[in-house]
Amino acid sequence: MDNNAKIKQVFCHALGIQPEQVTDDLTYNTIEQWDSTAHMILVAELEDSFDVMLDTDDIIDMSTVGKAKEILAKYDVQF
Amino acid sequence: MTSNSDPNSLKGKSVLVTGATGEIGQAIVAACLKSGASVFANARDEDKLAPLLDSWAGKVVPLIYDVTDEKAVKEQFRQIQKMQMQSDIGPLHGLVNNAGVMFEAPITVSSMDKLKEQLNINFLAPYQHMQLACRLMARQRKGSIVNVLSQVGELGSSGMSAYASSKAALKGATVSLAKELAPVGIRVNGVAPGFIDTAMTRHYDQERRDIVLQRIVMKRAGTPADVAKAVSFLLSNQSAYTTGHILPVDGAFCP
Predict the structure, then answer these.
(1) 8 A C-beta contact, residue B73 and residue B40
(2) B127 part of the active site
(3) What's the pLDDT at B86?
(4) How far apart are CA B37 and CA B17, in angstroms?
(5) Where on the tree of life does the source sit, at the highest rank (chain A) (predicted)?
(6) B81–A41 CB contact, under 8 Å
(7) What is the pLDDT of residues B217-233, one digit of tens each?
């Protein structure tokens, strides 16, 4: 599975949403499923899936799927 | 001997205990091991921790770092993240924020540096540990955080305003995070020891000690084991429906 498919799977699992909803523009707090609780689970699952530990500032900045990819790229995860 | 059906059992799980070389820390580590947990034992001083490793029966992973060193704390959690999936260690189930320092002085001679030291060690460091631990625990949708508070933070004590403030701050975080983390299955509780017989209180002369003991209904000082039993209860499934609670371990202290 490539990293694009992997991140889509993580978002689907953590937020309980369908794959077609996971676009780069999907934004935190704009759908009921992506609230603060789901955000914590999302961070935990991203860290688990990509074997990284994110900085708090990066978690604060992680406001969209596209931004999540940019942040993970800083940790040598290529998309 | 513990089993997974035993509600006290922490078998197959791991617990991080900060300040593991202090007397209360040692008792907490021993209690966790007795419950079957693997323990990540934090200390600043490797020389103090090394001899204890031989005395503890069970899986103990030493973690040598200063709890106030933010970078070091993050690095240690990265190590825990990697190690917790080893079959002989198990996922991080518990965090015991036990490391602490107690400063006693009237307000007029309490320097801002001393106040900041109290806040750094007793509040900011536990907060960062909770911030990182809850992310590891969220993967399991289960965890238990126990903060070692103090009856001084609950009730106040003349000459201990800096210490009391730092512990009261941690209490605020404890009860707030209990509400915030409940949806992801993480419980957050505290224990509030009263007068416990440790190095922190052993310098009290007999007269001062007697004055304190007169105010304790049970007429004795607590022991590190008394605190450890309360911590162990809050870590275990025995307290599965308890969160946001501060459990006094003080023999009913009357200020």
Answers:
(1) no
(2) no
(3) 79
(4) 11
(5) Bacteria
(6) no
(7) 999 999 999 999 999 99
Q: Is B142 on the interface with A (CB under 8 A)?
A: no
Interface of A with B in 10-69 (CB under 8 A): 36-37, 40-41, 43-45, 47-48, 53, 55-56
Range from A13-22, B7-16, B122-131, B224-233 carrying the lowest mean pLDDT: B7-16
User: Kind of pairing, strands B38-43 and B143-148?
Assistant: unpaired
| Sign, Cα dihedral of B234, B240, B243, B249 | negative
Residue with tokens 């975080």: B173
* Sheet strand arrangement including B143-148: B60-64, B38-43, B14-17, B92-97, B143-148, B186-193, B246-249
Residue B237 in this model has a pLDDT that exceeds 80 = yes
Structural domains in chain A? 3-74 (1.10.1200.10)
Q: B135 and A37: CB-CB below 8 Å?
A: no
Q: What is the tally of structural domains in chain B?
A: 1
Give pTM, 2 decimals. Answer: 0.94
Within a domain: B202:
no
Whole-number pLDDT of residue B255: 65
* pLDDT tens sequence across B107-157: 999 999 999 999 999 999 999 999 999 999 999 999 999 999 999 999 999
* Residues in chain B closer than 8 A to A48 (CB atoms): 139
Contact between residue B168 and residue B126 where contact means Cβ atoms under 8 Å apart: no
Q: What's the gap in Å between the CA of B135 and the closest CA on chain A?
A: 5
Would you call A53 and B131 a contact, using CB atoms and an 8 Å cutoff? no
Give the residue from chain A lying closest to B84, CA to CA: A48
Q: Band the pLDDT of B7: cuts 50, 70, 90.
A: confident
Give dist(CA A71, CA B2) in Å, integer: 43
